[in-house]
Every structure is written in C-alpha cells, then in structure tokens.
Amino acid sequence: MPDTIEVTKLTKTYGPVTAVNGIDFTVRQGDVFAFLGPNGAGKTTTTEILEGLRPRTSGEVRVLGLDPWSQGRELHRQVGVIPQEFRFIEKITPTEAIHYYGALFDTHPDAPKLLEQVALSDKANARFDTLSGGQKQKLGLALALVSEPKVCFLDEPTTGLDPQARRAIWQVIRTLKSEGRTVFLTTHYLEEAELLADQVAIINHGSIIARGTPEQIIEAHGGAERLSVEAPPSMAEYLKRSLPYPVQAADGRVNIEMREKGDALRILTAIEASGIPWKGFSTKTDTLEDVFVRLVGRMDEGEIKGTALA
Amino acid sequence: MRPRRILADLNIYARNYLRNPAALFFTLIFPIILITMFGFIFSNTGASSIKVPTVNLDHSSNESVQFLAALNHTGVVSIQVVSLAPGTNFSTWLGQNGNTVGLVIPAGFAQSYAAHRPVNVTAYVDPQDPTSSGFLQGALNGVANAYNLRAAGGQPVVGVQSSTVGSAVFKYIDYLVPGLIGFAILTSPMFSIAELVSSYRKDGLFRQLSLTPLTRAEWLVAKIIWYTFLSVISAVIMVTVGALLFHSTVRLSLGVIPFLIFGPFLFVSLGILAGSAAPTPESAAVVANIVTFPMMFLSGTFFPVSTFPPGLALIAHIFPLYYIIDGMNQVMLFGNATRALGDIGIVLVLGAILFVAGVYTFRWREK
Of A102, A175, B259, B304, which residue has the fewest beta carbons closer than 10 angstroms? Predict the structure, then answer.
C-alpha cells in the first residue's frame, strides 16, 4: 500500500528557535497514526505543516502526493481537519454549518446522519455559542467529514470531553478506519493512542524519540513486568535480603521486578516464607503512558539525546 | 468564483447578522433615530434659521420674489428685505447693524433669467462668522442649483447660467436623506467588518476557512453583496421616513443604485484593511472608529458640505464618503448626471484600490 503521508528531514524554525528538527516518518494508507508529545514539543507545528496551515523551513512533506503548502487548495478537497479548539460563527446551528460546508465542498451532506454519527443530534438546531466545549468539538468532527475525506487530521479531538463523548469520538475514528480512511491523530491521552492507533510516534524537543506500534514501543522502552503485593515496608526489607531482584515499596504495596514469568513462583514462595501478613497479588506491565512518562521525563532530565532512541 | 459558494457564505453571514440584535439596531434603527432627531431639530424655520438682510434691486419682478421665497423655504435662512437710503454702502450698513451676512439681487435679474443670460446675485459674508456665511452660501447654492444656477469661483458670488428652469426647492431634510443613506453605507460595514476580520483571525476561523474551497475573493464578494442589500434597505427606509415625517420630496431613482453597490464595495474593503492592520478585535474597533468618525461628520452626512467653512469644505474632499453623498445629492436632488458620473468614477477608483489592497493584506494562513 502506498504511504499517505511522507515526511523527510522536516525542519521548522521560528527565528533562533528550532520547533521541529529534521524529523522523518511515514503514515500508511488506512492506518490510524497517533502523534504524541508534551506541549511545546513540536506536535502542533508538525500537524499544521501537514495540514497546509504553516510553511516549513526545510525538508520534504507529501500528503496524498501533494505539497500541503503550495498545493493546499487541491489537498484540502481530500482531507478533513479539526483544529484544536474548534471555533465557528456564533449564531449558526450545527445543521446550518453542515449545509454550509456541503456547499463549499460541493457535496450534499446528510446532516442528521452526520450529527448522529458524532452524537450531536440533540443539538442539531442549537446556536454554536450555546454549545459546550465537547459539543463544539463534535461539530468540528462532523464538518471535517462533510467532504468525505481520504485523510482526517484530528488535533486533540477529545480534549476536555466527558467519557461518554470521548467514546463517541473513538467510535467515529474506528468507523473512519473501517471505511479505509487514514487518520492522523494527536492526543494527550495515551490510553486513547494505545486503544486506537496502528502506529505511534512520540516527539519531544522537535525530534521523534520513539516510533512503531504501541506494543513495539512498550517492548523497546518499557520496564520489566512487576509482581505487586499489598504489604508493609518490612516485607520489602525482607525480600531485598532474600531475592536477587529489584524491590520497591510505595503506597502500601511492594513491587518486585521479574526477569521472566517463571520468577513469579520463586517470589511468591519468598513472600509466603517471610511470615509477614500480605494480600492481593497482581502483575503489572508498562502501558504506553508509563513509557511516555519515562521517555519524556528522562528527556527532560537531559539523560538521553532525542535521536538516540528514534 | 463559484456562485454556490458565494451564496452559501452570504446565507450563513446573513443568518448570523440577523440573529445579532446590536448589529441590526445599528444598521436599521439608529439611522431612523438620526433622521427623526435631525429632521425635527433643523426642519423648523424661524428660531434656527439665519437672518439675511437682503436688498432686492429687481423688486418689481416675480422671479426675484420667488427666488427669495425659495431661499426662505430651505429653512436655513430667513430673508428680510430691506430698503436703503440712496448712496448708502450696503457692506458698511451691514456691519453697523450687527449683521454678518447680506444678499443683493441685481436689477434686471428676472430679465436676464428669462433670457438665459448669466446674472450674479451677491452674497456679503463676514469671514469671522463662517457658520452664517456657510449656511447662506449653502442655501444659495441649493436654490441656485434648483434654478440651474452654479456658484462661480471662490468669490461670494453666485453666477447664473442659461439653461432650462428647474422648479424644485430643497429643504434641509432633502439633504439629510441622501446624507443618512451615506451614513448607513459607511457605518454598517465599517463598524462590523473590521472587528469581524480581527476576531475571525484570533479565533482561527480564517484558518478553518482556508481548509475549505472557499476563496478570499468569494468571501469578500459575499460580504459586499450583504452590505449592498443593507444599503438598499437603508435607502428605502430613509426616503420613506423623510417623505412621511418631513414631507421630503427626494425619491429613489436608478441613478442611486451604483452608489448603493460601489459604496459598500469601498467600505467593506476599507474595513478589511482596518481589521488586518489591527492586532486585536478591540484595537480593530478603535482603528475603525478613527477612520469612520471624521468621515461621518465631515462628508456632508448631517449638513451639506456647501454650508461648511471653506477650510473644512476642502478637507471634506479627501473622504470617499463625500463623493458618495455628493453623487447621491446630484442624482436625487439636482438631476446633475454629469457630476454624479464623476463622483461614481472617483468612488469606483478608490474602491478598486482599497479592494486590491484589502485582498493583498488579508491573509487566512500564517506566512
């Protein structure tokens, strides 16, 4: 399958500040691609360059084979975009807005169906300035779909939404994927990326520091699987003496890092042999969120150069 | 340019506009308040009119008496015919009796007029009192225009040109109607477009629109169509209120239409420029006010520019609104198509320059 988005050595500078520092990545057709990073990492700048809202300083960018900046008009007929904090004309209703976009894109959208898809049917005829933040965001999503786009850019589409609304948006994203559309998603919620994304890239300080499927990233950058029991700190002291594994005590729990699954038996035997009361054992592996915090946190401490992990 | 996109944008903008009570008030109700207020204050003859001692050296003729009656009828001046002892210097007499203006109708006025021969009435004015002299000259110009007369040079003299006789006589309200149509043409785009451009930019609405096939030119054309529509509505309201409340005789005619189109064209473009120049919506409103207010008062909106002191009258000529109001006066009052064509030409050229400058500075994406 051809790559829908191709980014090569993309750099963007604002005066002396380098916001994006020579990044490379590709997005395959039909994938949900999650682009993650802390605020100020270059995430929005990169997204806006891909959308054709900002020119780049150097490097190559192609979306559907087009240069987003110089061929924006052609590109915008084939992509749908919801910017962060979607805003619209104050006294206009969602139904009117959809018909307006339909006329601009020369399509005849089914407004009730689109509104149902984004779970906004109950506000179909409410004026934009009376909508909540989440409802505004849903309208933004509905408008992005009016043009039947091949690629959807969703810039933090669920930020500030209640759990129910977030799930509605996730469902829309799954539907988009099942229809063969490519989704470029930025988000603050790591679980969202883990749940929806085929491919993930993490950007920090203008460089991509991790890339791959969520599983690959966890595998490459996550910590060991841990066995955890509810027990007093004296348990940790005992285990440190009797076991060759790293042990930590925190919040009334004791965590023991395992090298392999079979270590669990040996650890549990030692716990039972301690004579200290304990209960509630579980095992835990790193989530994408744990990996993200670890990578970005360590980046901020300056221990790892951004490109070393890419 | 796709008509479907222009119409869609026009439709959305109009709906939003009509749901905004403040904008509607300013566009439609406020000018009615103004015409009512100014109409009642200035239409009454007597107290507010300026006393003009007049020597009629052609007192035996009907024409000269009618000419003076027409001047009285403007409501701006009150003609008081005086007869002086032989050998009295009129200018000295005026000063001695505390008058700052005076008027002399020459002997043979009616004969010359009938024969279509140039003739001069002489206005005496005191430069120390620009207001009275302005009002007298304004009234003289108006009546002279009505008689197909024309002011000559910069002297306080009115020359008469031979041509057909016009019979209409204009009152203050007749100047006020075109003036307030001009007011609406100026203010409704200027007070909303500048702020709109600035707040759309701040809210990222233009960025969003740049992601659709809508072009900046289409967006602009939709706004121009909307404000043209509002201008037509204002013109109908002004003429109707003027006629019903104040018995104004001015009527709409086809010749007004170019001003109702190219006026909004010019001021929508100017509003875009003001909005693009200002960094925030608040400062956009300030910039728009700085541009709008002097133009509003000095372009002949509330009083004919011919009643202005000479310095101010000269300043009026730098404002585009002056040519719109003057042009509508020529069309609606004087039937002077040639001068109206000149005015619309100036409006068109200024409008085109501002439109191009507006499109050029108006950006939807960041550079």
Answer: A175
